[in-house]
Amino acid sequence: MRRCWLALALLGLAMATPAQPASPQVQLNGMLGSRAALLIIDGEPRTLEVGATAKGVRLVALEDGRAVVETAGRRQTLQLGAAPARIVSSTEQQRYIVMASGPDGHYTTPGTINGQATSFLIDTGATSVALSQAEAERLGLRFVNGKRVVTQTANGIVPAYVIDLASIRIGDVEVRNVSAIVIPARMPHVLLGNSFLNRFQMRRENDVMTLELRY
User: Fold this and answer.
1) What is the per-residue pLDDT across 158-183, written as a single tens digit (0 to 9) for each?
2) How far apart are the C-alpha atoms of 110 and 204, rounded to whole Å?
3) Assuming Cys at both sites, which of 89, 128, 173, 182 could form a disulfide with 195, CB separation 3.0 to 4.6 Å?
4) What separation in angstroms does the CA of 61 have from each of 31, 76, 97, 103, 116?
5) What are phi and psi of 198, to 5 degrees?
6) Which residues, at least 6 apart from 35, have a Cβ–Cβ distance to it below 8 Å?
7) Each residue of 54-87: b (16+ CB within 10 Å) or e?
């Protein structure tokens, strides 16, 4: 009888616990200098000045094509023109990367390589992370000390360098010791290939991709 009462009490507690509201999905769509930004919050355009709040999202700062936003005490950096990002709780953010596809169907996101800011594009067909020599130089990577190889590109066979990146970080998720290839090609983004993606369990629901860290 006591076990039955306890089970009913626990069931009642579970039913009384309110569901957590869905975290907002936010995109930086435009900037008015360093004073205000056009944000798309859950599909609705809002113009916010620094310090203002709309739909639970506060604009904290603006600079160099990026905006820092905050909701429920959680901050995230958005890059101008990148796909919408979902701001999740701190416990989720440590293991999950959530992003929505852009109008072209691609998944792009800001992040860092070895602590330096860059822009990524998910490429499930790439064997490893790939970046241009120009971007590698901007990030201060000493790729010429890496293993010299040749690789096939749209322009034919070209020389390239295989290196290990100390870290790749997106939001609060950081992966260390990631193999990458540096090639002499013009690339608007760093391609996040399988040397990074294999560390995650990938799920797609409509236009939203979730990467759950496996190890």
Assistant:
1) 889 999 999 999 988 899 999 999 99
2) 19
3) 128
4) 11, 11, 22, 26, 19
5) -65, -15
6) 49, 50, 62
7) eeebebeebeeebbebbbeebebbbbbebbbbbb
Of the candidates 168, 176, 96, which has an alpha carbon nearest to the alpha carbon of residue 131?
168
And the tokens for 86? 């979902």
CB contact at 8 A, 78 and 28: yes
Contact in structure between 78 and 25 (CB atoms under 8 Å): no
Among positive and negative, which fits the CA dihedral 133, 174, 104, 84? negative
Does pTM surpass 0.85?
A: no
pLDDT in tens, 72-127: 777 777 888 776 666 655 444 467 888 888 888 899 999 999 999 999 999 999 99
129-132 and 173-183 beta bridge pairing: parallel
**Could you give the CA distance from residue 60 to residue 48 in angstroms, rounded to a whole number?**
10
The alpha carbon torsion through 28, 196, 211, 54 (nearest 10 deg) reads: -20
